[in-house]
Amino acid sequence: MLRLPPFDYVAPKTLAEAVALKKEYGDLAMYVAGGTDLYPKMKRRQMEPKALISLSEIDELRTFGNGAGMTIGASITLTEVANHPQIKEQYPALSQAAALVSSPPLRNAGTIGGNLCVDTRCTYYDQTFPWRKALGFCMKKDGDVCWVALSSPKCLAVSSSDCAPVAIALGATVHLVGSEGERTVPVEVMYRDDGQFYLAKSPDEILVSIHLPPRAGWRMAYWKLRRRGSIDFPILGVAVALHLDEEGVCTEGRVALGAVASRPVVLDEEVNGILVGQKLTPELVEAFAQKASRPAKPMDNTDMNLSYRKKMARVYIAGALSEAAGVAVNSKQ
Fold it and tell me: What total of structural domains would you count in the chain?
């Protein structure tokens, strides 16, 4: 049986207290919300903090805010996100993504902020300490080699958040608070294309909230590929958000892919521009899916055959786009 190592546990009541405690402990401490990813990694000695600063007692992280769009506190659980009536009505893709994370008990504990910040994953990294030691460790923890590609200068562990691609497709922003002050940035700015240093935020910054802009009249969908229908992390996630006029012509569209690189992949304007000004037809959906799947270059470090996963990128992009647009397609699998 794997057991947690000893650690100090503190539960501040305010953001200021939490940030001050992180400054006091320095690199020895980590923030924890639901802990559904952190605690198993501590058991496997992938992460070894000497102190945990709990965010569960900070009221500011547990609020919903309405106005121009919707603001979701980072400590709102995934179950609450999935079941919230306003999110289900106005941002159904986010409700879909949250409902597809892991299993009901873990969604009851895991938070939206935690899922946006969830650690990258890799076959060579997500193992017990003895397993990793026998291999010789890897670049992400204790070693200096990426076993996925021995010549790679950086870690190739894969982004595995379900909610991040959706938040990006919706044009969401996140509010961060740390010792240097506070800032608000687009969700996609928070990620680096580096499996080891995957978050572009300082370790002392707390993700306070996620703001979703108004998306009345938009259509959206999230499709997730995994081996089992529950529990498993995504090996492909496709988030689509479209605005169609009364004639069914696309006036704006965003597509983001998850679990195909060390950060969510945002399709560039040239690719997304294929949709703009067009009425979505089965032929256009298939043509878009073919081109949009090209940035998906899966590596041999997650579940299933990588050539199959590459093929499924086209299939799932077509499926998510057709669901969002209400267009029937017959994409061969």
Answer: 3
Q: Look-up: residue for tokens 């703009």?
A: 276
Tokens of 77: 């659980």
DSSP states along 200-211: -S-TT-EEEEEE
Alpha carbons 312 and 309: distance in angstroms, whole number: 5
- The one-character DSSP state at 23 is H
**46-89 pLDDT tens trace:** 999 999 999 999 999 999 998 899 999 999 999 999 999 999 99
Residues 15 and 109 in one domain: no
A 10 A CB-CB count for 270 gives 8
Same domain, 114 and 164: yes
Measure the CA–CA gap between 207 and 73, rounded to whole angstroms: 9
| Predicted confidence (pLDDT) per residue in 187-236, tens digit | 999 999 999 999 999 999 999 999 999 999 999 999 999 999 999 999 99
The pTM score is 0.95
Domain match, 307 and 318 both: yes
Nearest to 170 by CA among 75, 73, 77, 71: 71
- Euclidean distance between the first and the last CA atom of the chain, given in angstroms as a whole number: 41
> In terms of residue numbers, what domain contains 36?
1-57
